[in-house]
Amino acid sequence: MLHAIREFRPTYFPAVPTIFVSLLNHPRLQEYGLEKVRTFNTGAAPCPVEVIEQFERATGRTLSEGYGLSETSPVTHTTRSSASASLAPSACRCRTRT
Known about the structure:
By secondary structure, this protein is of the alpha/beta class. The protein is built from three helices and four strands, in the order H-E-H-E-H-E-E.
């Protein structure tokens, strides 16, 4: 995956939390051009705050966490950053209670 990031230079990178854990465990993570990616997003399972914070320190980029359901097409909410545990405004103009 890191070779593909370096070769194709995506600007958006969505992945499950396990992928971000794997990236963090790579000994040469800094050599693959992650600074070219503008947006990192995780979802499909809860991402530990420790993983989000470690990833943000390692890359200098925000790792947002999304929530959604396949029947909502698919993302309904996303976090703004790891600094806030609250959800950002909904992505679908629906009412939200937290």
